[in-house]
Amino acid sequence: MNAPKPFDTKAFRDALGCFPTGIAVMTVAAAEASHMGITVNSFASVSLEPPLVLWCIDRRSRRYPAFAGAPGFTVSILASGHKAVSARLAGAGEHSLDGIALVPTELGPPALADSLAVFECARESVQDAGDHAILIGRVLRFWQNDGAGAPLVYFRGRYGALAQGSPPEGGPGRRATDVE
Fold first, then answer.
1. Which residues of 39-75 are buried (b: 16+ CB within 10 A; e: fewer)?
2. What is the pLDDT along the chain (180 residues), one digit of tens a residue?
3. What's the CATH code of the domain at 64?
4. Does residue 95 sit within a domain?
5. Is 180 a domain residue?
6. What is the β-pairing status of strands 52-58 and 132-144?
7. 46 phi-psi bin (left φ>0, alpha ψ -120 to 50, beta other)
């Protein structure tokens, strides 16, 4: 009988990269700096009632204690023009928001200027999940910027932009088989 092959983590990561994702920057107030940010592609909606969202952070990240312990965080959904900001805040060492165009929020952590949408969230819970943690936030306030352009996306390890166009068959943003 053949011994099982070891799990190929690189191949697994490459396969996960076949799923195109949007890019967001999470911001939080931090003790060592006025504010810090991190780029994520794990942002998702959880619930409409109550309004909940989630994202994931590596528990080994130097930014983990600040985000996991903060009473809340701000989510900025990035437009295609945010590629440089996204790349800067994705790195292991850089987390300062210095020199980045920001807008204030009622919650405190700023949002990135010209974001497609912004969500101000109170921390609902932090759940361990392997080498990451899932941060769930209750949306307190949100807004969207219809003039911000196309979303920044990540696919197979590269940045791109989603072309704006008509949705496939059916009404705007819905398939003919969707039920009201």
1. bbbebeeeeeeeebbbbbbeeebebbebbeebebbbb
2. 666 678 898 898 888 888 888 999 999 987 656 799 999 999 999 999 999 999 999 999 999 999 999 999 999 999 999 999 999 999 887 688 999 999 999 999 999 999 999 999 999 999 999 999 999 999 999 999 987 788 999 988 888 877 765 555 555 554 444 444
3. 2.30.110.10
4. yes
5. no
6. antiparallel
7. alpha
The structure's pTM equals 0.85
Question: d(Cα 23, Cα 106) in Å, to the nearest integer?
Answer: 23
Check if the beta carbon of residue 78 is closer than 8 Å to that of residue 85: yes
Give the span between the Cα atoms of 126 and 116, in whole angstroms. 26
Q: What is the DSSP string of 21-71?
A: EE-EEEEE--SSSS-EEEEES--EEEETTTTEEEEEEETTSTTHHHHHHSS
* Residue-number span of the structural domain to which 74 is assigned: 20-158
